[in-house]
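**Folding the chain**
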Amino acid sequence: MGSLPVLAATGAEMATVAFGPHTVSRLIVGGNPVSGNSHVAGALSAEMRDYFTAANTKKMLAECEAAGINAWQSRADRHIMRLLHEYRQEGGRIQWIAQTASEYGDLGRNLGEAAALKPIGIYHHGSQTDKLWAAGRIDEVRDALKRIRQTGALAGVGTHIPAVVDYIETKDWDFDFYMTCVYNLSRTAEEAARVAGRPVKGEYFHDADREEMLERVRRTKKQCLIFKVYGATRQCATEQSRRAAMELAFRSAKPTDAVVIGMFPKYQEQVRENCRLVMEAAAKGPAAG
Protein backbone atom coordinates (compact mmCIF):
# COMPACT_ATOMS: atom_id res chain seq x y z
CA MET A 1 0.00 0.00 0.00
CA GLY A 2 1.33 3.43 -0.93
CA SER A 3 1.50 6.51 1.20
CA LEU A 4 0.20 9.99 0.58
CA PRO A 5 2.62 12.89 0.03
CA VAL A 6 3.25 15.18 2.97
CA LEU A 7 2.73 18.79 1.95
CA ALA A 8 3.25 22.06 3.74
CA ALA A 9 0.07 23.99 4.47
CA THR A 10 -0.60 27.23 2.62
CA GLY A 11 -0.50 30.59 4.34
CA ALA A 12 -4.08 31.70 5.01
CA GLU A 13 -6.43 29.14 6.47
CA MET A 14 -9.21 28.13 4.09
CA ALA A 15 -12.62 29.46 5.11
CA THR A 16 -15.30 26.89 5.92
CA VAL A 17 -19.08 26.74 6.09
CA ALA A 18 -21.53 24.40 7.75
CA PHE A 19 -22.94 21.71 5.47
CA GLY A 20 -25.70 20.21 7.56
CA PRO A 21 -23.88 18.67 10.56
CA HIS A 22 -20.59 18.74 8.64
CA THR A 23 -18.05 21.45 7.91
CA VAL A 24 -16.80 21.98 4.36
CA SER A 25 -14.27 24.35 2.83
CA ARG A 26 -15.68 27.20 0.76
CA LEU A 27 -13.65 25.76 -2.09
CA ILE A 28 -14.62 22.18 -2.95
CA VAL A 29 -12.57 20.30 -5.53
CA GLY A 30 -14.64 19.09 -8.48
CA GLY A 31 -14.48 15.70 -10.14
CA ASN A 32 -15.00 16.36 -13.86
CA PRO A 33 -11.30 16.44 -14.84
CA VAL A 34 -10.67 13.15 -13.02
CA SER A 35 -13.51 11.62 -15.02
CA GLY A 36 -12.14 13.07 -18.27
CA ASN A 37 -15.01 15.49 -18.74
CA SER A 38 -13.40 18.71 -20.00
CA HIS A 39 -16.50 20.38 -21.53
CA VAL A 40 -14.03 21.74 -24.09
CA ALA A 41 -12.86 19.18 -26.65
CA GLY A 42 -12.30 15.49 -27.08
CA ALA A 43 -8.53 15.91 -27.11
CA LEU A 44 -8.48 17.69 -23.74
CA SER A 45 -10.86 15.15 -22.23
CA ALA A 46 -8.55 12.35 -23.39
CA GLU A 47 -5.53 14.17 -21.94
CA MET A 48 -7.32 14.45 -18.60
CA ARG A 49 -8.09 10.72 -18.62
CA ASP A 50 -4.44 9.96 -19.37
CA TYR A 51 -3.17 12.27 -16.64
CA PHE A 52 -5.49 11.22 -13.85
CA THR A 53 -4.09 7.85 -13.01
CA ALA A 54 -4.91 6.59 -9.54
CA ALA A 55 -1.56 7.95 -8.33
CA ASN A 56 -2.09 11.43 -9.77
CA THR A 57 -5.66 11.59 -8.52
CA LYS A 58 -4.59 10.70 -5.00
CA LYS A 59 -1.71 13.18 -5.20
CA MET A 60 -4.09 16.00 -6.15
CA LEU A 61 -6.55 15.10 -3.39
CA ALA A 62 -3.72 15.08 -0.86
CA GLU A 63 -2.58 18.51 -2.07
CA CYS A 64 -6.14 19.75 -1.66
CA GLU A 65 -6.33 18.48 1.90
CA ALA A 66 -2.95 20.02 2.75
CA ALA A 67 -4.23 23.36 1.42
CA GLY A 68 -7.43 23.22 3.50
CA ILE A 69 -9.86 21.84 0.90
CA ASN A 70 -11.73 19.12 2.75
CA ALA A 71 -14.42 18.00 0.28
CA TRP A 72 -14.50 16.40 -3.16
CA GLN A 73 -17.56 16.58 -5.42
CA SER A 74 -17.57 13.80 -7.99
CA ARG A 75 -19.65 11.16 -9.72
CA ALA A 76 -20.92 8.12 -7.85
CA ASP A 77 -19.63 5.73 -10.49
CA ARG A 78 -17.43 2.71 -9.91
CA HIS A 79 -14.29 4.42 -11.20
CA ILE A 80 -14.58 7.34 -8.77
CA MET A 81 -15.71 5.17 -5.87
CA ARG A 82 -12.73 2.85 -6.37
CA LEU A 83 -10.32 5.81 -6.35
CA LEU A 84 -11.93 7.29 -3.24
CA HIS A 85 -11.79 3.96 -1.42
CA GLU A 86 -8.11 3.54 -2.26
CA TYR A 87 -7.31 7.13 -1.25
CA ARG A 88 -8.97 6.62 2.12
CA GLN A 89 -7.21 3.29 2.64
CA GLU A 90 -3.94 5.19 2.35
CA GLY A 91 -4.92 7.76 4.94
CA GLY A 92 -6.92 10.33 3.00
CA ARG A 93 -9.75 11.94 4.93
CA ILE A 94 -11.45 14.08 2.32
CA GLN A 95 -15.24 14.25 2.55
CA TRP A 96 -17.31 13.23 -0.44
CA ILE A 97 -20.29 14.92 -2.12
CA ALA A 98 -21.64 12.46 -4.67
CA GLN A 99 -23.46 13.05 -7.94
CA THR A 100 -25.89 10.33 -8.98
CA ALA A 101 -24.64 8.34 -11.98
CA SER A 102 -27.50 7.99 -14.44
CA GLU A 103 -25.82 5.20 -16.41
CA TYR A 104 -26.63 2.79 -13.57
CA GLY A 105 -30.26 2.87 -14.71
CA ASP A 106 -31.21 1.86 -11.17
CA LEU A 107 -31.15 4.71 -8.68
CA GLY A 108 -31.52 2.42 -5.69
CA ARG A 109 -28.45 0.36 -6.63
CA ASN A 110 -26.44 3.50 -7.34
CA LEU A 111 -27.37 5.03 -4.00
CA GLY A 112 -26.63 1.79 -2.16
CA GLU A 113 -23.11 1.54 -3.56
CA ALA A 114 -22.44 5.23 -2.95
CA ALA A 115 -23.76 5.10 0.63
CA ALA A 116 -21.15 2.46 1.50
CA LEU A 117 -18.51 5.21 1.15
CA LYS A 118 -20.40 7.50 3.52
CA PRO A 119 -20.88 10.62 1.39
CA ILE A 120 -21.88 13.71 3.34
CA GLY A 121 -24.16 14.74 0.48
CA ILE A 122 -25.70 13.21 -2.63
CA TYR A 123 -27.32 15.28 -5.34
CA HIS A 124 -29.46 14.51 -8.34
CA HIS A 125 -27.34 14.89 -11.48
CA GLY A 126 -28.02 18.30 -13.01
CA SER A 127 -28.18 17.13 -16.62
CA GLN A 128 -30.77 14.53 -15.66
CA THR A 129 -32.73 17.12 -13.67
CA ASP A 130 -32.79 19.34 -16.75
CA LYS A 131 -33.89 16.50 -19.06
CA LEU A 132 -36.80 15.75 -16.76
CA TRP A 133 -37.67 19.45 -16.71
CA ALA A 134 -37.74 19.58 -20.50
CA ALA A 135 -39.89 16.44 -20.59
CA GLY A 136 -42.41 17.85 -18.09
CA ARG A 137 -41.42 15.23 -15.51
CA ILE A 138 -39.54 17.38 -13.01
CA ASP A 139 -41.48 16.00 -10.06
CA GLU A 140 -39.61 12.72 -10.53
CA VAL A 141 -36.63 14.56 -9.05
CA ARG A 142 -38.62 15.08 -5.86
CA ASP A 143 -39.16 11.32 -5.64
CA ALA A 144 -35.42 10.76 -6.12
CA LEU A 145 -34.66 13.17 -3.27
CA LYS A 146 -36.77 11.05 -0.94
CA ARG A 147 -34.62 8.06 -1.83
CA ILE A 148 -31.43 10.05 -1.31
CA ARG A 149 -32.72 11.02 2.15
CA GLN A 150 -32.90 7.33 3.06
CA THR A 151 -29.12 7.00 2.71
CA GLY A 152 -28.57 9.43 5.59
CA ALA A 153 -26.67 11.88 3.37
CA LEU A 154 -27.74 15.45 2.75
CA ALA A 155 -29.93 15.64 -0.35
CA GLY A 156 -29.31 18.04 -3.22
CA VAL A 157 -30.61 19.08 -6.63
CA GLY A 158 -28.28 19.87 -9.50
CA THR A 159 -29.36 22.06 -12.41
CA HIS A 160 -28.07 24.35 -15.15
CA ILE A 161 -31.44 26.06 -15.71
CA PRO A 162 -32.55 29.05 -13.61
CA ALA A 163 -36.22 28.25 -14.28
CA VAL A 164 -35.77 24.91 -12.50
CA VAL A 165 -34.72 26.77 -9.35
CA ASP A 166 -37.71 29.09 -9.77
CA TYR A 167 -40.07 26.13 -9.97
CA ILE A 168 -38.61 24.29 -7.00
CA GLU A 169 -38.66 27.46 -4.90
CA THR A 170 -42.47 27.54 -5.23
CA LYS A 171 -42.79 23.96 -3.94
CA ASP A 172 -42.28 22.43 -0.52
CA TRP A 173 -39.57 19.96 -1.49
CA ASP A 174 -37.56 18.35 1.27
CA PHE A 175 -33.88 18.75 0.41
CA ASP A 176 -30.79 20.54 1.66
CA PHE A 177 -28.77 22.15 -1.14
CA TYR A 178 -28.55 23.10 -4.78
CA MET A 179 -25.69 22.40 -7.19
CA THR A 180 -26.07 25.50 -9.38
CA CYS A 181 -24.22 25.81 -12.68
CA VAL A 182 -23.64 29.40 -13.75
CA TYR A 183 -23.88 28.43 -17.42
CA ASN A 184 -27.02 26.96 -18.96
CA LEU A 185 -25.57 23.96 -20.78
CA SER A 186 -28.96 22.31 -21.19
CA ARG A 187 -30.17 24.39 -24.11
CA THR A 188 -31.08 22.56 -27.29
CA ALA A 189 -28.96 23.32 -30.34
CA GLU A 190 -31.79 25.47 -31.67
CA GLU A 191 -32.08 27.44 -28.43
CA ALA A 192 -28.32 27.93 -28.26
CA ALA A 193 -28.28 29.22 -31.84
CA ARG A 194 -31.00 31.75 -31.06
CA VAL A 195 -29.11 33.02 -28.03
CA ALA A 196 -25.76 33.11 -29.84
CA GLY A 197 -27.15 34.58 -33.05
CA ARG A 198 -25.29 31.92 -35.03
CA PRO A 199 -25.14 28.13 -35.35
CA VAL A 200 -23.52 26.53 -32.32
CA LYS A 201 -21.55 23.30 -32.30
CA GLY A 202 -21.42 21.50 -28.98
CA GLU A 203 -22.05 23.16 -25.63
CA TYR A 204 -22.60 26.91 -25.65
CA PHE A 205 -21.14 28.92 -22.78
CA HIS A 206 -23.06 32.21 -22.72
CA ASP A 207 -21.48 34.64 -20.26
CA ALA A 208 -24.75 36.44 -19.61
CA ASP A 209 -26.08 33.21 -18.06
CA ARG A 210 -23.88 33.76 -15.03
CA GLU A 211 -25.77 36.73 -13.63
CA GLU A 212 -29.10 34.99 -14.21
CA MET A 213 -28.21 31.90 -12.18
CA LEU A 214 -26.32 33.88 -9.54
CA GLU A 215 -29.46 35.92 -8.94
CA ARG A 216 -31.16 32.64 -7.92
CA VAL A 217 -28.22 31.76 -5.71
CA ARG A 218 -28.60 35.08 -3.93
CA ARG A 219 -32.37 34.79 -3.49
CA THR A 220 -32.79 31.22 -2.32
CA LYS A 221 -32.46 30.36 1.35
CA LYS A 222 -31.05 26.97 0.36
CA GLN A 223 -27.32 26.47 0.45
CA CYS A 224 -25.77 26.56 -3.02
CA LEU A 225 -22.63 24.87 -4.32
CA ILE A 226 -21.76 27.01 -7.34
CA PHE A 227 -19.96 25.39 -10.25
CA LYS A 228 -18.53 26.13 -13.71
CA VAL A 229 -17.26 29.43 -12.25
CA TYR A 230 -14.39 29.39 -14.78
CA GLY A 231 -16.62 28.23 -17.63
CA ALA A 232 -14.62 25.01 -18.00
CA THR A 233 -11.39 26.98 -18.75
CA ARG A 234 -13.09 29.72 -20.80
CA GLN A 235 -12.40 32.26 -18.03
CA CYS A 236 -8.89 30.97 -17.37
CA ALA A 237 -6.78 32.86 -19.92
CA THR A 238 -5.13 35.03 -17.26
CA GLU A 239 -5.00 35.36 -13.50
CA GLN A 240 -7.07 38.52 -13.88
CA SER A 241 -9.82 36.68 -15.74
CA ARG A 242 -9.86 33.92 -13.13
CA ARG A 243 -10.04 36.47 -10.34
CA ALA A 244 -12.88 38.34 -12.07
CA ALA A 245 -14.88 35.13 -12.52
CA MET A 246 -14.41 34.18 -8.88
CA GLU A 247 -15.32 37.63 -7.64
CA LEU A 248 -18.47 37.57 -9.75
CA ALA A 249 -19.56 34.36 -8.04
CA PHE A 250 -18.84 35.64 -4.55
CA ARG A 251 -20.70 38.90 -5.10
CA SER A 252 -23.86 36.78 -5.12
CA ALA A 253 -22.84 33.89 -2.90
CA LYS A 254 -24.48 33.81 0.51
CA PRO A 255 -22.27 33.32 3.58
CA THR A 256 -23.37 29.65 3.58
CA ASP A 257 -22.45 28.97 -0.07
CA ALA A 258 -19.34 27.39 -1.56
CA VAL A 259 -17.80 27.03 -5.00
CA VAL A 260 -16.81 23.80 -6.76
CA ILE A 261 -13.73 24.01 -8.99
CA GLY A 262 -12.34 21.16 -11.07
CA MET A 263 -8.55 21.14 -11.29
CA PHE A 264 -6.06 19.78 -13.84
CA PRO A 265 -2.58 20.47 -12.43
CA LYS A 266 -0.59 18.83 -15.22
CA TYR A 267 1.08 22.03 -16.42
CA GLN A 268 0.86 24.41 -13.49
CA GLU A 269 0.00 24.49 -9.80
CA GLN A 270 -3.73 25.07 -9.36
CA VAL A 271 -4.69 23.99 -5.85
CA ARG A 272 -3.06 26.81 -3.93
CA GLU A 273 -3.86 29.41 -6.57
CA ASN A 274 -7.55 28.55 -6.41
CA CYS A 275 -7.45 28.63 -2.61
CA ARG A 276 -5.95 32.11 -2.76
CA LEU A 277 -8.50 33.37 -5.29
CA VAL A 278 -11.41 32.00 -3.28
CA MET A 279 -10.16 33.55 -0.06
CA GLU A 280 -9.62 36.92 -1.74
CA ALA A 281 -13.04 36.87 -3.44
CA ALA A 282 -14.84 35.73 -0.30
CA ALA A 283 -13.23 38.53 1.71
CA LYS A 284 -14.11 41.10 -0.93
CA GLY A 285 -17.68 40.00 -1.72
CA PRO A 286 -20.84 40.63 0.32
CA ALA A 287 -20.68 37.06 1.62
CA ALA A 288 -17.87 38.18 3.93
CA GLY A 289 -20.40 40.13 5.98
The longest strand covers residues 154-159. The chain is about 40% helix and 15% strand. Confidence is low (pLDDT under 50) at residues 1-11.
